[in-house]
From TrEMBL:
Signal peptide: none annotated. SMART domains: AAA. The keyword DNA-binding does not apply. Keywords: ATP-binding, Nucleotide-binding. Residues 2-248 form the ABC transporter domain. This is Fe-S cluster assembly ATP-binding protein. One of its GO terms (molecular function) is ATP binding. Belongs to the ABC transporter superfamily. Ycf16 family. InterPro entries: AAA+_ATPase, ABC_transporter-like_ATP-bd, ABC_transporter-like_CS, FeS-cluster_ATPase_SufC, P-loop_NTPase. The keyword Nucleotide-binding applies.
Length: 251
């Protein structure tokens, strides 16, 4: 589904290389987790895949179901089915949550040649999904993320993901700043979306999120490369022993 080959990326303004040959394949129906110390390039990988400005791809490729991602605008990548949940979701004052979501859903449907969702259909759908995520109806009426707690912002992003039904979901440290209850709610929302036609790339520092979102494959990233790949037991090894031994092996 998502295939990354020999991806090299630099920061445009600093001429500093961040990714130094990333190779990764995420299959449909699978959850892959990326762990690694600060500065290893985990978040940069997510930003580059989503099309964030400020990064220069100097070598390599990234495709989603055979389509070249790197040559597309961010909205075109989203229409293909790519979704990025940010570590720090942005606030959008003056734009209502419901308006934002209905506009996003219908923009994607239009790009795929599908009929737009009517107001009645949308209202029924979003209320059902919000209830599953324990999102209060009043929260849907507020401006996007304005005045939301950290947990509310993350649940709101999972609601966006549930409404957009992407093919490839990237979660960039979505557990950051969450207490145990909020993290479990977010994880439950993610698990409800797992299925044969959807892949997940979960970027995290800690095993604790992976207690709730069980990965099929775990990758360790360091210095702009994936240095080790294994099963869920690899995350447990990191939790118990840290990254030291794994990074020493990679030298």
């Amino acid at each position: 589904m998502l295939e990354i080959k020999n991806l090299h990326v630099e920061l445009e303004e600093e001429d500093k290389q961040i990714l130094k040959g990333v190779n990764l394949t995420v299959e449909a129906g699978k959850v892959h987790a990326i762990m690694g110390p600060n500065g290893s390039g985990k978040s940069t990988l997510s930003y580059v895949l989503a099309g964030r400005d400020g990064y220069d791809v100097t070598e390599g490729s990234a495709t989603l179901e055979g389509e070249d991602l790197l040559g597309l605008d961010p909205e075109e990548r989203a229409s293909l089915g790519l979704f990025l949940a940010f570590q720090y979701p942005v606030e959008i004052p003056g734009v209502g949550n419901m308006t934002f979501l209905r506009t996003a859903v219908n923009a994607q449907r239009k790009a795929r040649g599908e009929d737009e969702m009517s107001a009645t259909e949308f209202l029924k759908e979003i209320r059902a999904k919000a209830k599953e995520l324990q999102i209060d109806a009043e929260m849907l009426k507020r401006p996007v993320n304005v005045g939301f707690s950290g947990g509310e912002k993350k649940r709101n992003e999972i609601l966006q993901m549930a409404m957009l039904e992407p093919k490839m979901c990237i979660l960039d440290e979505t557990d950051s700043g969450l207490d145990v209850d909020a993290m479990k709610l977010v994880a439950d929302g993610v698990n409800a979306l797992r299925g044969a036609g959807r892949g997940f790339l979960v970027i995290t520092h800690y095993q604790r999120l992976l207690n709730h979102i069980k990965p099929d494959v775990v990758h360790i990233m360091s210095n702009g490369r994936i240095v080790k790949t294994g099963g869920p037991e690899l995350a447990l090894e990191v939790e118990e022993n840290g990254y030291g031994d794994i990074l020493a092996e990679a030298v």
